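Give me the fold.
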Amino acid sequence: MALIGKVVALTGTVYILTDNGGRRELQLGDSVQSGDTIQTMQSSSVELDMPVGPNMHIGATQLVAFSEELTNALGFDSLDGRVDIATIETIIKAIESGKDLNEVLEETAAGNNGLTTSYGFDFVALLRINDVLNQFGFDYDFNYDAIIQERPITDRLLDDGNNLGDTGTGTIIVDTSANATITVNSITADDIVNATEAGGPISVTGTVGGDAAPGDTVSFTVNGTLYSGTVAIGNTYSIDVNGADLAADTSFDVTVSGTDGTGDPFTATTTSTHTVDTSAPSVSVNIVDANLNVADNSSTVSFTFSEAPVGFTAGDVSVTGGTLSGFT
């Protein structure tokens, strides 16, 4: 095996292919032997320091096989060691210009019926190679913003012995969020806390919906006091609150929190408002004709209330020294 030359200049990626099928990237200082093939990629080149004659420059996208015939033509005849400088210069110029060596060399140097190497080349082959991408590189395009949807899946089941079973298809639903709702009923029948109601406990009640379910937590703060309870069967809740706190605080937020069946957390909040009336109503009585006598013994009587009465009748009025009639 004759030494063709050594690498003294290298640009880009250049590979060397050996007779035994090996392939490696060429490095500065590497030796090229007869039987080797040099492959240059796009925008790459290599220069060999030849033992005889000028350096050999191999440009981009070329494949040069240093077969026995080419080795001999370059002047490395193992039998006589003679060097044909003119032949070497002709071959180098042909390689640099991309010409067919069979067209520029005499038949005795190359011949049209040269042997075929293990790579399938005649005496020497120069090929134009479109190698835009690294043949060992891969370009993956991922869409991380893709919307998650219901998609078919293929599964393989394991038996008790961890053996894979048959494949099957099904549908998986991807759930990455949870939501809930909550409502609050009227604090009292008329949504007004009166003096009597303020003196005892008042139940704050309501319902939940969405992913909220029995066992989830309902909480709120009234007049600085934290109250909480759990959702009951039927998605309702009832939490006793001190009436005095509700009399002092007429607006508060009620929140339900928990997780759905897949473990996604949720929180829902609503605001409850009510009014307070803990003052006793007052009434004033006005007898229009204050100077009653035997001749003038009747007068209109009016009642003025501080707030609208409920169920006020004549039976609620006590009369002394006279009678009450025409009550409206």
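Residues 281 and 306 are 6 Å apart (CA to CA).
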